[in-house]
Write a structure and sequence with these properties.
The protein is α+β, with helices and mostly antiparallel strands. It contains four helices and six strands. The strands form two sheets. It has a three-stranded antiparallel sheet. A three-stranded mixed sheet has the order 5-4-6, with no helix packed on it. It binds zinc ion. The site of zinc ion has 6 residues, from loops.
């Protein structure tokens, strides 16, 4: 991994005040090292870490992703109520979910218009709205 990528990973961690442990830095570099936004699952990030010979367990990847979320570095998008995707793009934006591939990609925000939301029940307020558009390839 080149030093620019590692530097980007370190800067990303320090932005959130997270101590750059070896494992955090390794995963941060995989997530933001190339300066591009990405969507990962714990499993896909674990596979990417393994590919480059990073010694890390799936449980650690999962816990680290959670810690990055809590620190405000990632947002979690849940599909099907159980599949969690982690997004490095913190701006509000809709997603396409490719049903066949189980892949999540960004959808153009400027083409989304939400005219009205149902009122939150008494004693509650809307915390956030996730828009996931499920796609199926045409046969
Ligand atoms: Zn996204």
């Amino acid at each position: 991994m080149d030093s620019n990528a590692t530097e980007r990973g370190a800067a990303w961690l320090s932005k959130a005040g997270l101590r750059p442990t070896r494992q955090r830095l390794g995963l941060a570099t995989l997530l933001v090292g190339d300066g591009e936004n990405r969507h990962v699952t714990a499993e896909s990030l674990f596979a990417a870490a393994k590919d480059i010979g990073q010694a890390v367990s799936l449980a650690t990847v999962y816990n680290t992703l959670r810690a990055f979320c809590d620190a405000g570095l990632l947002r979690e998008i849940t599909v099907d109520g159980s599949r969690s995707y982690f997004d490095t793009n913190m701006h509000d934006h809709p997603h396409f979910y490719w049903e066949e591939d189980g892949e999540l990609t960004d959808a153009p925000s400027d083409e989304l218009e939400i005219a009205r939301l149902p009122r939150a029940p008494g004693g509650a307020s809307i915390a956030k709205v996730d828009v996931v558009i499920r796609l199926r390839r045409n046969a």
